[in-house]
């Protein structure tokens, strides 16, 4: 698919999204999924459209109501693909997926959760505003092999760093996968201070990272 065709599809989806037209958004998403893949749909259509919605809201070009409706539509579309995700054979590996404490934007990290599931992992999605204390307790209870954390707001970077520090007290070696819209403004330099903390910039790179782990065993 050409770059021009990709942009046309994404802009068409965004237009439907801003109009609150769930049926047309769903129909277009289905067509893209059938022509490409789930990771392509997530990265090139849903994620980019939500980033555009966020930017429009930030510059007061759309209302809070429109922003909330757009998010609700995308979350509903994600739920449509659950049967396609859970049908894959499990490989007996476990990951916990969560947002940084005080953050309520969970759609992006839900996509990451789905990518883990798509690659056969048992993924526990804790969602928005996950308290660090509860997260560490849950890691112990299920003996998780990896943690994936989303950061949407750049100014919450100190909260993320505190979260990593607290996790490292009880779990000095567990891999922590980090990503999210916040890193469009920087912040990767904070992560390199910590062992086994891996930054992934997008859904495609995360998918490749998981596949490499699966391959290496």
Structure description:
This protein has helices at residues 3-18, 22-35, 38-58, 64-80, 82-86, 107-118, 132-142, 157-170, 188-191, 203-216, and strands spanning 94-99, 122-127, 146-150, 176-179, 197-199. With 217 residues, it is α/β, with parallel strands linked by helices. It has a five-stranded parallel sheet with strand order 2-1-3-4-5, with helices on both faces. Helix 6 links the parallel strand 1 (94-99) and strand 2 (122-127).
Descriptors for this entry?
217 residues, 59% helix, five-stranded parallel beta sheet, alpha/beta, 11% strand
Topology (SSEs and partners):
Elements: H1 3-18, H2 22-35, H3 38-58, H4 64-80, H5 82-86, E1 94-99, H6 107-118, E2 122-127, H7 132-142, E3 146-150, H8 157-170, E4 176-179, H9 188-191, E5 197-199, H10 203-216
Parallel strand pairs: 1-2, 1-3, 3-4, 4-5
Q: What is the subunit arrangement here?
A: single chain
Q: Report the mean per-residue pLDDT as an integer.
A: 93
Widest sheet, order of strands = 2-1-3-4-5
Ranges with pLDDT <50 over ≥5 residues?
Answer: none
**Global structural class:** alpha/beta
For the biggest sheet, the summary is: 5 strands, parallel
Query: What's the total count of β strands?
Result: 5
Beta-strand content bin: 5-15%
Shape: globular
For the record, give the distance between the C-alpha atoms at the N and C termini, rounded to a whole number. Answer: 33 Å
* Helix percentage: 55-70%
